[in-house]
Design a protein that fits this description.
about 350 residues; alpha/beta; TIM Barrel; six-stranded parallel β-sheet; 11 helices; 12 strands
């Protein structure tokens, strides 16, 4: 797990990476704040090989909440440039996840009111979500069904965000196509009821996500990797299956995607994924075998011994660690260390 991994010439120092996790702590301008600087740089100092900045909206309408980060304008790019430079200066690869929320949009931050299943009214600063079909998520606002022009604009917005991410100094971008957000909504027959070229068959349901993948890959510099977070299953009868996920994974490989960040579930509020450690590791191994693309599973990887076993005994290339890194910024250092001071910042040696 301490072995470096090289992708498109980018050397990642180890295989324990920080998963993107929303902080809902930006202002309405979407600009990174001091909270983000301290939060992410602490995890870089703490040994994570990649520090993946949270789901960052590609435009105002693509946010989940009014507290989401954005990367659609120059003011945001300028602040992200400092954030990415400081992450890299602390020893980690600086990465960012690009996001369009779709029907899971215009809701409250988790710690206020009804939280993430609580809609924000238009007269309180909310906005109308957009989605493949006018089918709401939980109690959130009914979304507007997207036109073909809306779909084209999403592709353009992702490409523009990828260009901004490069200008902001990020080494890696990740496209979010899972957890019930817009691209996942197009992929799943549970949320996509369209009857045009973007609905129905798997080929049609993949059309927008693959257009986005190709646009981002074409826009982001060729020497920098592009990841995709994808779902292995919806955990719902009639939803995405592992067989369909394998088709999508092979198509992403053909589009030049460099790594699959493998997860599952979260498409529907009444179908949570099972509570099981290392939930997505086997899925990731299958998708790696099917696509030939490196993989990093995420989800319920909080036990250090288990993380070590996964990295040493499975065929996955890395792991994405989430909540364990919220609890302990130094999770990776503790796992990578040999009990000596060598891997810790020298400023901390007198405490060891």
């Amino acid at each position: 797990m301490a072995r470096p991994l090289t992708i498109r010439g980018l050397e990642i120092p180890n295989r324990i990476w920080m998963s993107p996790m929303c902080q809902y702590s930006a202002g309405r301008d979407g600009v990174p704040t001091n909270w983000h600087m301290v939060h992410y740089i602490s995890r870089a100092i703490g040994g994570s090989g990649i520090v993946m900045v949270e789901s960052t909206a590609i435009g105002p309408r693509h946010r989940t909440t009014a507290g989401d980060l954005g990367i659609w304008n120059g003011q945001q790019v300028e602040a992200h440039f400092k954030l990415s430079a400081d992450i890299r200066g602390a020893g980690a690869v600086a990465a960012i996840q690009l996001q369009s929320a779709g029907r899971k949009s215009s809701h409250q931050v988790p710690w206020l009111g009804g939280g993430q299943n609580s809609p924000i009214a238009m007269d309180e600063g909310g906005w109308t979500p957009m989605a493949p079909s006018a089918k709401r998520f939980g109690n959130l606002m009914v979304p507007a069904e997207m036109t073909v022009r809306d779909i084209d604009e999403v592709v353009e917005d992702f490409a523009h965000a990828a260009s901004n991410a490069h200008e902001a100094g990020y080494d890696v971008v990740e496209i979010h196509a899972a957890h019930g957000y817009l691209l996942h909504q197009f992929l799943s027959p549970i949320s996509n009821h369209r009857v045009d070229d973007y609905g129905g068959s798997m080929e049609n349901r993949m059309r927008l996500p693959l257009r986005v993948a190709r646009a981002v890959r074409d826009t982001f510099p060729q020497h920098k990797p592009v990841f995709v977070r994808m779902t292995a299953t919806d955990w719902i009868d009639g939803g995405i299956t592992l067989d369909e996920a394998s088709v999508f994974a092979r198509s992403l490989a053909a589009a030049g995607i460099d790594l699959l960040d493998v997860t599952s579930g979260a498409l529907s509020i009444d179908a949570p994924p099972p509570n099981r450690q290392a939930l997505n590791v086997e899925f990731a191994q299958t998708l790696r075998a099917e696509s030939g693309v490196p993989v990093a599973p995420v989800g319920q990887l909080s036990d250090p011994a288990l993380v070590g076993t996964v990295l040493e005994q499975s065929t996955v290339d890395a792991v994405m660690v989430g909540r364990a890194l919220l609890r302990d910024p130094y999770f990776a250092l503790r796992l990578l260390g040999d009990g000596s001071k060598a891997q810790w910042p020298r400023q901390y040696h007198r405490a060891l």
